[in-house]
Design brief:
Layout lengths: L1 E5 L2 H18 L4 E4 L6 H12 L9 E4 L1 E3 L10 H10 L9 E2 L8 H14 L5 E4 L21 E4 L2 H7 L12 E4 L2 H5 L3 E6 L5 H9 L17 E6 L9 H10 L6
Parallel strand pairs: 1-10, 2-3, 2-6, 3-5, 6-9, 9-10
Antiparallel strand pairs: 4-8, 7-8
Length: about 260
């Protein structure tokens, strides 16, 4: 796990965008795993800037989103379909048939989840998965207690997640209680992962994920077992790391490391 610490959220977003861009420059038809929420907004803004300036082409890209609320249609203002359209898809040239966001209105969720897993496999697997982290250490909607081998499925949302997401709805009662989400096991099969976090409110979860035990009570801790994960943090999110001096020493001396 590579830990990169930046001074500001804007620097975090730019560093994450550089990871995405490097992936696409190496493999123009890469499969990207995408996240929603406030954390990746800066990343998407930077990717849009790169695309509009002509330095980044998404014409061959396939994307898979992590999750969606159960019961929300793709036109609902708070659906993740709508989020992705407004903050990325409407501004870059990922072909519409190549964009995959889980359906929140399936007639048979069990079969749909199997199809989503199969579709990822058909496309060759995810080359780069973008992640955020919840205040309780969850990734996607894999709440504390989720199996670290879990697959795409319906998940009941935890009270903290409902409270965290209530700001996006008119009232807390409007937040859906269920979501369809990629599983931890699904995420760990990605060839590379970049997790981004900002703000002191994420510091404890970040510390648990990076330096704590691998446990289903903090599903992001499963990333310790992944072969190629980059974690990009601002100062606030990194503030509770015990080994922060070591991570920064590695950053400062990386160019001199033997290859």
């Amino acid at each position: 796990m590579e830990i990169i610490i930046k001074d500001t959220y804007e620097q975090v977003s730019c560093a994450a965008a550089d990871v995405v861009a490097a992936t696409l420059h190496t493999k123009p038809n890469a499969v990207l795993g995408l996240a929603t929420g406030s954390t990746p907004l800066g990343l998407y803004k930077e990717l849009i800037r790169m695309h509009q300036e002509g330095t980044l082409d998404f014409a061959q890209v396939t994307s898979f989103n992590l999750d969606e609320y159960v019961g929300l249609s793709r036109r609902h203002p708070q659906s993740y379909h709508r989020f992705m359209h407004e903050h990325l898809f409407a501004h870059v040239n990922i072909p519409e048939p190549n964009r995959h966001v889980p359906s929140g209105t399936s007639d048979n969720y069990r079969e749909y989840c199997r199809w989503y897993e199969a579709r990822i496999e058909e496309c060759g697997g995810i080359d780069l998965q973008v992640l955020g982290i919840g205040g309780d250490g969850h990734i996607a909607f894999n709440e504390p207690g989720s199996s670290l081998g879990s697959r795409t499925r319906i998940k009941t949302l935890a009270k903290q997640t409902l409270e965290d997401n209530a700001r996006f709805f008119e009232s807390a009662d409007d937040v859906p209680r269920y979501a369809i989400t990629m599983g931890v096991g699904t995420i760990l099969e990605s060839r590379r992962i970049v997790l981004i976090a900002n703000g002191e409110n994420k510091a404890e979860a970040v510390a648990d994920a990076i330096e704590g035990p691998v446990t289903s009570m903090c599903t992001a801790s499963a990333l310790q077992m992944h072969r190629d994960t980059i974690v990009i943090l601002d100062r606030g999110a990194a503030s509770k790391l015990k080994m922060i001096d070591y991570y920064e020493w590695i950053q400062a001396n990386q160019q001199d490391a033997p290859r």
